[in-house]
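Title: Prediction job returns without error message
Component: structure pipeline
Severity: low
Priority: P3
Assignee: unassigned

Description:
Job completed but the reporter wants confirmation the result is attached to the right record. Sequence as submitted:
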Amino acid sequence: MHEFTYITAFTLGLMGGVHCVGMCGGIVGALSFASASAKVGDKVSNKTSKNSTLLSLLLAYNAGRLLSYSIAGGLMGGLGWLVSVWADIQMLQILLQLIAGVFMLMMGLYISGWWTGLVKIEKAGAVVWEKIQPLAQKLLPVNTPMQAVSLGLLWGWLPCGLVYSVLVWSVAAGSFQQGALLMLSFGLGTLPNLLAMGLFANQLKQFVQKQVVRNLAGGLVILFGLWSLFLSVRVLILN
């Protein structure tokens, strides 16, 4: 089941890219601006050099972001393990799997634009982000890969209903390692969209804004949620 879970998390990140493009477009734009103003040997860089600088910054930023996701997932997985010490492990896992399935349904509706209830989760996370945002602003504009990594570490805590929902799911992992791997799998799924956002911003933005794309992405996530609920209910019935 772990393999299925990690593949599901990766797919959620990939399908959720239609939301990530809008949520993280600002920071990707900042990295693009830094790259555009980069210089090589006291001369304005050519197009190839600019693209190379931009790609290095984007990779560094996303490395930091994925690290922050992994740390958060590990903490949530560790919390799940602590709870399991005082509870029936099997029943707890089934309950958390049910919760994860419900959250996947909500994520699918959220991605498709059919329901925006997860915005409330983002508003709750804004309290944390208010403390982190001043540190992130000090790193702008981003001119070096180390700055990009540092910014990615901070930006991983940006209030995002999609990310927070997967974090809740990470509790069901039941251990620090599995929780970290779950969030890492999700983060890797978001990577193609955010890299493409930095290199082909206008084209990608126009693509993900199409309702048919949002419907397809949200529909696939909903199917994963229904499958997760089916597996959980089946275990309850068999027991």
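Comment from assignee: result matches the submitted record. The longest strand covers residues 39-40.
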